[in-house]
């Protein structure tokens, strides 16, 4: 029986013998796993087009940059005035050429004629297969075709067919929601062709004017209707126009700054021209006139948004301008109504989940909006498409909140009611779109008293009343946007950050300085990727932040702001009263990844070949937005770091070279001294030998054989050392000037030594000789061996320290002259080439290392902190962690 109930293993089942890899420690295996899926050098595409492509053109639209401080009203006025000037210049040019204005950047007529659809759709992000580009089919046409197949019984009474569901899903999704018909526009004409008596506005801007078209932009239409309910807001968006020339100017708020744009008056229509497909005999033109009158005249003929009045044009032109700044009509399909209000007012939106509201009456007071400082919108639950409903309310749909009232009923009880509007402007074909519960049109709550009290009339106009209680129960999201007047100032700071796979507060932080006590609105924002759809990449980000006093502990915070939306928001904000002082804002960003989406580089490569015109438009939007991220500054800092590194390396090389030169100089000087000493010793020894020889000749019997042996040994050692030196010199082809200088030094030393010897008296010479003889007799053999070994060591040392000096010819005194700069540069270039060769050599990875992933985690985003305050001295400063490389180089 086996232990722990496991089945015993038979011999046949045992693994074959052989060497097996030793298992890695668990921690090592885990660390190698994380190393393989996390990018070692995180980064982001900072600009679609390299700077070289901008070299020969004027700079694109300027942005406020990474930081700015502006009065909220003054910054708007600057953009509005720029828009007015632009329209005046266009009008002047139109009058000169006697032509209506055609927008070269968003020419929907030319785009439609060439069937490019760049003004309708975004960048293609799918690879084109061998069969050609993806086929575009209208959802309505597909539905009609399938219905015809079923009705005709071509496939039998129980039709079955194999079908690819992916293109079917994409076609149905492209049909659009929000009450749209899911078809494509059929033609393009100018305003004066479509409308009999066109007028930009009829009796001003009104919520009842607004009707959604065939695009899924209910969120934006709802925001427009809400703004129309407050006097003066829409006039600030539509700032300039000339009906005769067909030019209209608008301003929008984008990523912390106001921008302006102009459009012409061409619009998309639902039905094609009478003779678009065939030539019908119509000698009087009556058939064509009736066709145009029925299908191509007035607001009902428009494909996208329209006004209720048949001759009013402001809404379709405003929608066109909004689509233009974002790239196309597809880019504005689906969104948050609070963000749309921000785009047209420059306000700040806060999102509330109705099931999380702590004090409903606090929210009610804000809904009353007595000071007119808020704008509200609401969204229905995300339980299905907007073609489905719950008690009449379309699901996943945005509604306008027009106003809230608190009135006393006939029974003296207070009633809290909210007036809401569907952006469709009417009910759908099946009656859905408006609330069907209490206080809906025709409900029992509407007595003559209340009809008169609220001045309400039943009708299919998209407007309906709800009680505040039902409003909080049936709508799950409420967007409240705070508006700012000239008393507010906004300061902002932008940067780019790497978002780790592990969630936590970033080391990069913002410091807010307030000098006057008062209300402050703090906003942490990311770039609006709606402006560069298709190039947003694989990551999306959810924002949070802490606001605390400078130096305080993280747990001792003043505000903790988090997103309430399950899909995340473009920005998060917090309103708080602050006393004078410095405060820190710590961002916390959660990143999620969708690997089914293409990376930016792949989209650019595909679009550059298949649709360069669209890439220029969206790519320019991308570059303008990411200019706020400080990537250019980071690039300059990187170059500065590289420059400092290079200077430090050059300085180190120069110091090493100087050390080598100094060591060679010292070695040469030492060698000269040793040779001088050697020459003197040789002279003395020669004299000793001569004296010894003379003594032997005079007294041959008294000669000591040992003493002669000693002298002979010493001479042999000296001769060996000299032979080595000679051999070393002979290795070079010629005797160098340096060696000649040494020989001259030897000769001078010998002559000086001889002169000194001759000057000595005979008695001193005898005494010296007797002393030397006694000393040599006493130390005979040991002294001789020590001297021999010393000279050999000295010559070996000289050979080691100065090999190049012995081989290269140098003039006398060359050891004191520095090498020319060209030689230094050549030497440095050779060393750099060696370093590059080493870098290019493939480095074999250890077998234990896990191969890195093809597309590792690399989440980088651009964030900005915007602070709205009535203190005009408020400041925002970006604080990044110190780069250890910079710190080391600056020391």
Automatic annotation (TrEMBL):
Q: Where is the composition biased (Acidic residues)?
A: 815-834
A molecular function (GO) held by this record is:
calcium-dependent cysteine-type endopeptidase activity
Catalytic residues of the enzyme: 218, 397, 422
> Can the keyword Ribonucleoprotein be found in this entry's annotation?
no
Q: Name one Pfam family in it.
A: Peptidase_C2
Enumerate the UniProt keywords alphabetically. Answer: Hydrolase, Protease, Thiol protease
* Extent of Basic and acidic residues compositional bias: 677-708, 715-808, 835-850
Top-rank taxon, per record? Eukaryota
Q: Which SUPFAM superfamilies match?
A: Cysteine proteinases (SSF54001)
Q: Which family does it belong to?
A: Belongs to the peptidase C2 family.
Q: What is this protein called?
A: Cysteine proteinase
């Amino acid at each position: 029986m086996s232990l722990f109930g496991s089945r015993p293993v038979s011999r046949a089942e045992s693994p074959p013998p052989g060497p097996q890899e030793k298992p890695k420690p668990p921690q090592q295996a885990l660390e190698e796993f994380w190393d393989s899926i996390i990018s070692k050098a995180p980064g982001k595409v900072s600009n679609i087009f390299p700077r070289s492509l901008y070299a020969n053109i004027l700079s694109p639209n300027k942005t406020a940059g990474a930081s700015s401080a502006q009065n909220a009203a003054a910054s708007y006025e600057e953009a509005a005035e720029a828009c007015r000037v632009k329209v005046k210049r266009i009008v002047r040019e139109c009058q000169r050429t006697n032509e209506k204005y055609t927008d070269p950047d968003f020419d929907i007529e030319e785009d439609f004629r060439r069937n490019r659809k760049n003004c309708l759709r975004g960048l293609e992000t799918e690879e084109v297969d061998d069969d050609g580009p993806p086929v575009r089919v209208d959802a309505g046409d597909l539905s009609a075709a399938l219905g015809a197949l079923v009705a005709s019984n071509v496939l039998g009474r129980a039709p079955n067919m194999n079908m690819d569901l992916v293109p079917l899903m994409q076609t149905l999704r492209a049909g659009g929601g929000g009450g749209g018909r899911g078809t494509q526009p059929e033609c393009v004409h100018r305003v004066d062709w479509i409308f009999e008596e066109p007028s930009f506005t009829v009796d001003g801007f009104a919520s009842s004017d607004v009707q959604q078209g065939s695009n899924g932009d209910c969120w934006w239409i709802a925001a427009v209707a809400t703004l129309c309910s407050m006097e003066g807001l829409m006039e600030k968006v539509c700032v300039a126009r000339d009906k005769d020339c067909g030019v209209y100017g608008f301003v929008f708020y984008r990523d912390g700054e106001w921008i302006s744009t102009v459009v012409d008056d061409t619009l998309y229509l639902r039905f094609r021209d009478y003779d678009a497909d065939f030539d019908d005999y119509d000698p009087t033109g009556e058939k064509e006139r009736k066709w145009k009158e029925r299908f191509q005249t007035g607001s009902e003929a428009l494909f996208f948004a329209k006004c209720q009045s048949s001759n009013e044009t402001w809404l379709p032109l405003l929608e066109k301008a909004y689509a233009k700044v974002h790239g196309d009509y597809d880019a504005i399909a689906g969104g948050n109504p609070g963000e749309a209000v921000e785009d047209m007012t420059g306000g700040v939106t806060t999102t509330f989940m109705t099931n999380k509201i702590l004090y409903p009456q606090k929210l009610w007071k804000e809904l009353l909006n007595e000071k007119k400082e808020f704008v509200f919108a609401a969204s229905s639950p995300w339980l299905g498409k907007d073609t489905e409903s719950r008690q009449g309310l379309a699901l996943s749909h945005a509604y306008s909140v027009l106003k809230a009232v608190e009135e006393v009923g006939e029974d003296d009880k207070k009633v809290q009611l909210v007036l809401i509007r569907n952006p469709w402007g009417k009910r759908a074909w099946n009656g859905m779109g408006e609330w069907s519960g209490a206080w809906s049109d025709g409900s029992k709550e509407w007595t003559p008293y209340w009809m008169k009290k609220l001045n309400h009339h039943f009708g299919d106009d998209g407007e309906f009343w709800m009680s505040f209680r039902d409003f909080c129960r049936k709508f799950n999201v409420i967007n409240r946007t705070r508006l700012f007047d000239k008393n507010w100032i906004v300061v902002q700071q932008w940067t780019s950050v790497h978002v780790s796979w592990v969630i936590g507060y970033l080391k990069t932080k913002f410091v807010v300085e307030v000098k006057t006590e008062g209300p402050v609105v703090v906003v942490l924002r990311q770039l609006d990727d709606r402006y560069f759809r298709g190039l947003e990449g694989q990551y999306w980000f959810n924002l949070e932040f802490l606001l605390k006093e400078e130096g305080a502990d993280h747990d001792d915070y003043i505000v903790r702001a988090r997103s309430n939306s399950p899909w995340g928001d473009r920005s998060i904000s917090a309103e708080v009263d602050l006393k004078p002082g410095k405060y820190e804002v710590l961002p916390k960003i959660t990143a999620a990844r969708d690997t089914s989406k293409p990376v930016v580089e792949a989209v650019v490569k595909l679009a550059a070949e298949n649709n360069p015109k669209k890439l220029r438009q969206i790519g320019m939007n991308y570059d303008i937005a990411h200019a706020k991220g400080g990537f250019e500054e980071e690039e300059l800092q990187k170059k500065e770091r590289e420059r400092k590194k290079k200077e430090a390396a050059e300085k180190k090389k120069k110091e090493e070279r100087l050390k080598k030169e100094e060591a060679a100089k010292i070695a040469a000087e030492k060698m000269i001294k040793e040779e001088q000493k050697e020459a003197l010793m040789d002279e003395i020894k020669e004299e000793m030998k001569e004296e010894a020889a003379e003594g032997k000749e005079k007294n041959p019997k008294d000669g000591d054989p040992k003493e002669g042996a000693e002298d002979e040994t010493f001479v042999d050692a000296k001769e060996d050392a000299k032979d080595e030196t000679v051999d070393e010199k002979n290795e070079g082809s010629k005797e160098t000037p340096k060696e000649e200088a040494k020989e001259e030094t030897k000769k001078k030393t010998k002559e000086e030594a001889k002169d000194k010897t001759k000057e000595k008296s005979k008695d001193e010479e005898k005494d010296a000789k007797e002393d030397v003889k006694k000393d040599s007799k006493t130390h005979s053999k040991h002294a001789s061996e020590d001297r021999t070994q010393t000279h050999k060591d000295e010559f070996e040392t000289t050979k080691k320290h100065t090999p190049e000096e012995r081989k290269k010819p140098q003039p006398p005194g060359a050891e004191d002259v520095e090498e020319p700069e060209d030689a230094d540069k050549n030497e440095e270039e050779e060393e750099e080439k060696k370093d590059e060769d080493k870098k290019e050599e493939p480095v074999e990875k250890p077998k234990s290392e896990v191969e890195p992933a093809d597309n590792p985690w690399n989440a980088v985003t651009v964030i900005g902190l915007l602070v709205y305050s009535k203190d005009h001295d408020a400041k925002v400063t970006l604080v990044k962690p110190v780069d250890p490389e910079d710190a080391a180089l600056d020391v």
